[in-house]
From TrEMBL:
The keyword DNA damage applies. One of its GO terms (biological process) is DNA recombination. Belongs to the RecO family. Residues 1-79 form the DNA replication/recombination mediator RecO N-terminal domain. InterPro entries: ARFGAP/RecO, DNA_rep/recomb_RecO_N, NA-bd_OB-fold, RecO, RecO_C. Keywords: DNA damage, DNA recombination, DNA repair. GO terms for cellular component: bacterial nucleoid. This is DNA repair protein RecO.
Length: 238
């Protein structure tokens, strides 16, 4: 069917020619889509500023051979307006949409879409620490993509874990740890569990030391699974 309609979050845009723009979209029902918005850079464009990064929109598109074409747009939410007011929130949002683009290139689900939208909404509302939103998003999105961390007991002996392996995504005790593992203690393991579950009340109780240690661990886990790091992470302030 050449015409279709879907909700989408705008992950990335770049210029095409003098007045057009190519959009990378994560849709609710059709996965990741690349589409062209014709004439969007003209001052008279009917799309206006509705197709900027971090925007959530209802779209009608025409299916093309290489690129689909946006024919109608209705904005559902513009989280970018609030996000760009703060540098940390902006860099974290950029890391979230970059990770989303990488993780949904081949396979995605409605859960991926809802997870991105939820993370951007939380960043715009500013009620949760932005770095913790990023850490939670990375753990959850990796889990949706098949890399579910095993955080309950030492995978070798079943005892209480204190060490996380970025290579395997599993935890061990200190005696069973493998080279390259990171010791984050039982508090660090518990913090990862709370981030994965979205237990924000418990997340807020973690000390700065635990949060920083776990953030570095999650960044390493993400880089290992994606085979290279996220460029936006270089600009995130912790």
């Amino acid at each position: 069917m050449p015409n279709y309609r879907d909700e989408a979050v705008v992950l990335r845009t770049h210029k095409l020619g003098e007045v057009d723009r190519i959009l990378t979209l994560l849709t609710r029902q059709h996965g990741q889509v690349r589409a062209v918005a014709k004439g969007i850079r003209k001052t008279s464009s009917k799309f206006g500023g509705r197709l900027e990064p971090f925007a959530v929109v209802d779209l009608q598109l025409f299916e093309g051979k290489n690129l689909d074409t946006v024919t109608q747009v209705e904005q559902l939410a513009s989280y970018g307006t609030k996000i760009i007011e703060d540098y940390q929130r902006y860099t974290i949002a950029s890391a979230i949409v970059e990770a989303a683009e990488r993780l949904t290139r081949e396979v995605s689900s409605e859960k991926h879409y809802l997870l991105v939208v939820g993370a951007l909404r939380s960043l715009a509302q500013t009620e949760i620490q932005s770095d913790q939103i990023l850490d939670s998003y990375l753990l959850r999105s990796l889990s949706l993509s098949g890399w579910v961390p095993s955080l309950e007991v030492c995978v070798s002996c079943g005892s209480s874990p204190t060490v996380f392996s970025v290579q395997t995504g599993s935890v061990t005790c200190a005696q069973c740890s493998i080279p390259g593992s990171i010791s984050i203690g039982t508090d660090g393991i518990d913090h990862m569990k709370n981030l994965l579950a979205g237990n924000w009340e418990e997340v807020s109780k973690a000390s700065d030391q635990i949060r920083n240690s776990v953030s570095g661990t999650i960044a390493g886990y993400t880089q290992w699974q994606l085979e290279r790091g996220l460029k936006s992470m270089n600009f995130v302030e912790r």
